[in-house]
Amino acid sequence: MGVDKRLILAAAVILPIILTTGCRKSPPPAPPSLPMPASVDGVAALDEVSRFVALGPRDAGTPGAARGAAYLLARLRGIGYRPLLDAFSESTPRGQVGFSNIIGVPPGYDGSSITKVLQNSAGPVVILLSHYDTKTGISETFGGANDSGSSTGLLLHLGRLLSAQKPPLPLVLLAFVDGEECHTAYGTNDGLHGSRHLAQQIESSGQAGRVQAVIVLDMIGDADLNVRIPPNTTQALLADALTAAEAEGVRKQFGISKSRILDDHVPFLERRIPAIDLIDFEYGSAPGLNDYWHTEADTMDKLSAESLATVGRVVLRMLQNLGL
Ligand SMILES: [Zn+2]
Fold this sequence. Notes:
This protein is an alpha/beta fold. 37% of the residues lie in helices and 17% in strands. The protein has a six-stranded mixed sheet, sandwiched between helices.
């Protein structure tokens, strides 16, 4: 019995088409999109800082702090992030104090608390974090331009850039934490209240393993920018930050601090959650001095749009390199 070669040829051509068509899976989801580092607008970021600082003192547990929290809730809505208010109370050296963490959730993620947002989603998580309270008792007009206005304003600006991306967005949470400043001396019930509370929530959600990085920004607006990352930082993130700074051509403004720093990244490190602190702890009238810190001299004229843009670009470059 002869075989028609044309049929064999036709089968050879058609069969693979049928097989591949039949087995074709739906295309892989588009990778989350991230803004380009060059899209950071330092002038717009400085404007965010200025508007927030104009609220005045935001000492934890005071009406000023409540004004700060209300502003952040409204502003997050304005930039397309969904705000969550997490109010809690802790005993401190000055008695029981109420604190409010504000968490910004990007579009596409649901859940009425940080725990639920994490449990309702899958994939990597990055948290950009700034405290928004001010040091207590400086003055009635103290706005804390660099500490904590600079990082708060830059986070809002970065959130605006992130939420403007085409969906799906990566799970980049914006955490504005309360009570970073201690009243008397840092201890288990004085200072770092908001970050400790958030770190505990992430740990007890069972989702800590998905957190790729908590990137803490603090005092990053000084016109004379010298970010010094403390050695008590997740080493892989330290390397990432320096690589990102190199790629952005600003490596000279980023280095490693000689001494450890107790800041909002520490409660995460204590729970084995990767964390880094981008801080410039030389904020003063001459190189090496820190004499503007926690004084009435911490005002907007000491900040620059360029410094905010530099840090913002490095953070966005880090996000790209984290493989979200
Ligand atoms: Zn401070």
